[in-house]
Amino acid sequence: MSRPSVNRSGEMEVFVKAVELGGFSAAARHFRMTPSAVSKLVLRLEERLGVRLVNRSTRKLQLTPEGHAFYERTTRILADIDEAERCASAGESPTGRVRLNVNASFGTHILMPLVPEFRARFPAVTLDIIQTDAVVDLMEARADVAVRAGPLKSSTLIARKLGATRMMIVAAPSYVERNGMPSSLDELRAHDRLGFCYARAVDGWPLGKTGETVVLPASGTVLVSDGEGLRHLALAGAGLARLAEFAVREDIRAGRLLTVLEDLNPGDREDIHAVFLGQGGALPSRVRAVLDFLASHARVRPMLPNGLRQGRQASE
């Protein structure tokens, strides 16, 4: 009697769902199976592959390095299967849910104003948008796309550059009225320099001309977890803040914030990328639609010089 064929795609679906839901019991409830049946299925899969995919010594499901690699490949294969079925039955229109992790400033000032246009173009795509400046693990967060500012660490993620933003020091007029406008690096040392409560690639404020740059550490009594929180502190007059130009350009144009020591701005920029798992050709159409839309509509461009409201000029 011949051996029955193995339902490989079915095994992949159960394995992927166990990873995404965090355990065998949750996957069993999803597929209306028993936890022991899910456990046996994964064990058979491991035996056939000849590798351990899951560590079972802890209550929380943990993948081995081989399990991580298998998960990434199987999600792409299942996405291709779904894509083929959708294309055959409903044409090429993207459908489904896309989960995005974006830093708070990008989400507030760049992405959110574009959502209505995206929805008009892709009405069958649902967006789950999580705003956080924390660098998340896309697989653990079950995110399809993340937008990150600053240098990218070496990883298996694929990146598409969305632009770069100049950094600048700003202060509210109310803060300047109380404390004065610093006109030199030495004067700046005496001011409240608000910062972040997590490590950054450049953990301080670079100041000076090319080749003579010094990094001044943040010194304020308030630290925050995201750029939007820092911007609101600056608007409230709590201290000086060094922020991305795109996040404060409208505040500067409206006079809500003033630029500080622009003559000592070294012109350093933070690159902004959309990152995602897998190769571009294996992406579901719904994820590809989001990435293409970000690349064409969410470009981060510099502000024109005449949009600046210089601190010393405004305070005269």
Quick synopsis:
The chain has 316 residues and is of the alpha/beta class. It is built from twelve helices and 13 strands. It has three domains: 8-88, Orthogonal Bundle (Arc Repressor Mutant, subunit A); 94-163 and 271-297, D-Maltodextrin-Binding Protein, domain 2; 164-269 and 304-315, D-Maltodextrin-Binding Protein, domain 2 (3-Layer(aba) Sandwich), CATH 3.40.190.
Strand content: 15-25%
Beta strands, count: 13
Low-confidence runs (pLDDT<50, min 5 residues)? Answer: 1-5, 312-316
The overall pLDDT average reads 83
CATH architecture of the largest domain: 3-Layer(aba) Sandwich
Percent of residues in helices comes to: 25-40%
Distance between the termini: 94 Å
Class based on secondary structure composition and strand pairing: alpha/beta
Shape: elongated
CATH superfamily of the largest domain: Periplasmic binding protein-like II
How do the helices and strands follow one another from N- to C-terminus?
HHHEEHEHHEEEHHEEEEHEHEEHH
CATH domain class name of the largest domain: Alpha Beta
Number of domains: 3
Report Rg: 25 Å
- Largest sheet features: 7 strands, mixed
Which structural traits does this protein have?
alpha/beta, D-Maltodextrin-Binding Protein, domain 2, 7-stranded mixed beta sheet, 12 helices
Written overview of the protein:
This protein is α/β, with parallel strands linked by helices. It folds into 3 domains: 81 residues, Arc Repressor Mutant, subunit A (Orthogonal Bundle); 97 residues, D-Maltodextrin-Binding Protein, domain 2 (3-Layer(aba) Sandwich), CATH 3.40.190; 118 residues, D-Maltodextrin-Binding Protein, domain 2, CATH 3.40.190.10. Strands 3, 4, 5, 6, 11, 12 and 13 form a 7-stranded mixed β-sheet that branches. The protein has a two-stranded antiparallel sheet with strand order 1-2. It has a two-stranded parallel sheet with strand order 7-10. Strand 1 and strand 2 form a beta hairpin. The termini are far apart. One of its GO terms (molecular function) is DNA-binding transcription factor activity.
